[in-house]
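Let us practice reading a record.
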Amino acid sequence: MALMLELEWWKWLLAIVGACGIGLSKTGVPGVGIFAVALFALVYPAADSVGLVLPLLIAADVVAVKTYHRHAQWKHLWRLFPWAAAGIVIGYFAMNALKDTATAQIIGATLLLMVALHLWRKRATEEESIPSGALFSGTMGLSAGFTTMVANAAGPIMTLYLLAMRLPKLEFIGTGAWYFFILNSFKVPFQADLGNINGRSLAIDGILVPFVLIGALWGKKLLPRLNQNVFESLSLFFAVIAGLKLLFF
């Protein structure tokens, strides 16, 4: 296990930026979440980064659930949970069988795929038909479970699913908040068993959690004043660079 508290200053800086990005991703800029995952995968060994990021995501999920819990539409969540749980179990066995280099390549490929899916979803219009049947729910749930287990990067998949359900804005956010809080919590024992969550990673998380909260609060106050499209595009661009590095170098 290569996690160490004695990191170079620039690695701490990237980790702090990533933690703020996780908070931002829960307050209206979902593309930043992919970028944050990429940053941590560059700072730490690939598998370790997945376990390190998970408690930070749960901290951000708590903020989102507390804010939007009344707006969740549980009927949509129950359709996803069994499939997503199965995807997490599959991801657990995959990570258990792979070496760190292979895990890095999977994370890199997943990041690139999620960026592409995010961009495709952004270009989709309301007139375009997005499937919404049982097969679609199963596919989305299984894919989201696997990608969230191996790379903490299922955001674009869940966004696509919720768009297909045609939910109003608050219900969209509230349903997504509960989904990620429950699934991320479900992943904890699996990541702990893999050794990716441990005393050293939790010590680093304890330092970074305040920056997650700062990112979430900063997003609520400042995002209306920012050019969200430019901000998100830059985040996705750097996520692509990180994904390519993990995949090929």
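A brief commentary: The longest helix spans residues 169-193.
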